[in-house]
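Hello everyone,

My group is preparing for a crystallization screen and wants a predicted model to guide construct design. The compound we'll soak is zinc ion. Before spending weeks at the bench, it would help to have a computed complex in hand. I've included the protein sequence and the ligand's SMILES below. Output in structure-token form would be ideal because that's what our pipeline reads.
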Amino acid sequence: MSDSITCNVCGKPIALEEWQEAMDAAYATQFEDLHFVTACCSSVTSLNSIVYEYPLGFARFQIAIRNPADGFTDELVDRLQQVLNMPLRVI
Ligand SMILES: [Zn+2]
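Reply:
Good plan to model first. Here are the tokens for the complex, ready for your pipeline.
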């Protein structure tokens, strides 16, 4: 796990212990509810919204795209979002 997690609301670091508690709470809901209240600024945020050192996200599925013919473009992501009828996060 990354050692750099920051609050998406105020930009302050989130302690690993706080993140672990939020993960434990999310696990208890089978990751249906990713929300928690931050210690830094008492904001309601989501494990999916806080800022990790490297891009990541919580997902029900993933799609891997290797060597797309026209390169990995915003247009490709837009087309996939339209086909799937849902927003995608590129990681
Ligand atoms: Zn904060």
